[in-house]
Amino acid sequence: MDRTTDVLIIGAGPAGATAASLLQQAGFRVVIVEKQRFPRFVIGESLLPRCMDLLEEAELLDSVREQGFIIKDGAVFKRGEATCTFKFTQQFTNGWSYTYQVPRDQFDKTLADAVEARGIPILWEHGVTRVEFDDSGHSLTHLEGPNGESLEVSARFILDGSGYGRVLPRLLNLDEASSLPLREAMFTHVSGDKRPVGEGEGRIWVCLMGDEENAWMWIIPFSNGKTSIGIVAKPDYLARFPEDPDARLQAILQESAATRERLSDVQFTFPVRTIRGYSISAKRLHGPGFALMGNATEFLDPVFSSGVTLAMESANRAAKTLIRQLNGEQPDWEKEYAEHLMMGVNTFRTFVNAWYDDRLPTIFFSPMKEEIFQDQICSVLAGYVWDENNPFVGQSERSVNTIVNACKVLAD
Ligand SMILES: Cc1cc2nc3c(=O)[nH]c(=O)nc-3n(C[C@H](O)[C@H](O)[C@H](O)COP(=O)(O)OP(=O)(O)OC[C@H]3O[C@@H](n4cnc5c(N)ncnc54)[C@H](O)[C@@H]3O)c2cc1C
Asked: What whole-number distance in Å separates Cα of residue 197 and Cα of residue 40?
């Protein structure tokens, strides 16, 4: 393999595969370095319709379609006996009306196989250990292979799509604490889910689990008959239940009418896994010779399934900005890349905060159902968080507060 490349991409997840494909389409040499061997488990299984545009542009949609993933055409929110359904056919933004629920081992392998089949080398089971930049931003990246062997790759630019590995944020001291409080997620896959039949079968369910600080559970059905379930809550909430993780999740299922009924006969297909403290930010998203993408930038919270969409959008933008630079132009990375990405992140930030402080549930479960604002909210939930014509994008905080106040007036 040539150890000199135009672009070194760290991580073969959705961010890495998307950027690699776009850069290769533009005629640049790309090498991907991936610490693990695929298929590998990663959490984050519910896509948003915006992903479809991004997969299509990266010429990856056909490969994804061939997998026969279950179609997700909406999102269902549950609180006790109350239900609020958003159908992606009823949106403000003119976007895709569906997407997929994807076991990530299969989805990520599909993307990686597709880019590898186009001749993009992937150095599997190679982890980045050290990176040196010279004054012009050219880099020498030191890698360690599966048997401890060393390898070096010289690149004009590095795109870091290392996800939770956060390679460059760690090496360049760019990590920044999140403004969100510590939460924990416990999850597994199950068989025996009594999912709806016919319309709505593939929708994600987001179930509120109690009155306190809006702990919630996801239910994400797959086409292989299994279903992903998980609880997200502050550690205090979880500590009220048995200590053993499997027993804890089983006990939590009893806390809401929705999960109690639908998941009453489920069997866990692997022991419950726990992760905590996943919300994190970065001091900056780019610098001479590098840019961060996907979860290596900022990760907020799983509640609106925004992670893969933001990973692929950031990869799309970073690749386009980089193509201009490699073609001799001088793009403004802050404006063209960071500000664009943060518009979407900040829209989701408003929604995440409004979920946990109960403003969004107040809207979702209000009898007030004005079509126009429902459609605008639906487009945010579909991942169209760069449509500045949508008041829930440009002025998300104000728009949420206006509707909450109207719902409260109606309730009084
Ligand atoms: C509880 C929970 C639930 C979630 N649910 C959803 C959801 O329903 N929908 C959604 O869209 N998102 C969800 N997410 C977010 C989602 O997991 C991520 O946003 C998404 O996986 C980010 O993709 P990525 O390409 O940036 O990174 P990843 O998919 O994490 O890929 C990064 C790759 O980099 C590799 N790597 C790491 N370190 C190194 C190294 N040193 N050298 C080389 N390679 C390296 C890793 O092996 C990995 O394969 C959830 C997150 C959490 C915490």
From this structure: 30
Could you state, in order of their start, the residue ranges of all structural domains in the chain? 4-72+103-177+279-344, 184-276, 358-411
DSSP codes, 93-137: S---S-EEE--HHHHHHHHHHHHHHTT--EEET-EEEEEEE-TTS
Whole-model pTM? 0.97
CATH topology of domain 184-276: D-Amino Acid Oxidase; Chain A, domain 2 (3.30.9)
Nearest to 28, CA basis, from 54, 8, 12: 8
- 35 CB within 6 A, ligand 1: yes
Query: Residue 394 pLDDT more than 90?
Result: no
Give the H or E element holding residue 219. Answer: strand 216-221
> Which residues in 161-211 belong to E strands, given as ranges?
175-177, 184-191, 204-208
Q: Which CATH architecture has domain 4-72+103-177+279-344?
A: 3-Layer(bba) Sandwich (3.50)
Q: Does ligand 1 come within 6 angstroms of the Cβ of 345?
A: no
Q: What is the number of the ligand 1 atom nearest to the C-alpha of 43?
A: 17
Is the C-beta atom of 14 inside 6 A of ligand 1?
yes
For residue 44, which amino acid is it?
Answer: G
Provide the residue type at 247 as one letter: A
266 touches 192 (CB < 8 A) = yes
Ligand 1 binding pocket includes 226 (Cβ within 6 Å): no
CA separation (Å) from 341 to 123, 139, 156?
28, 25, 23
Instruction: Tell me the average pLDDT across 98-115.
Output: 98
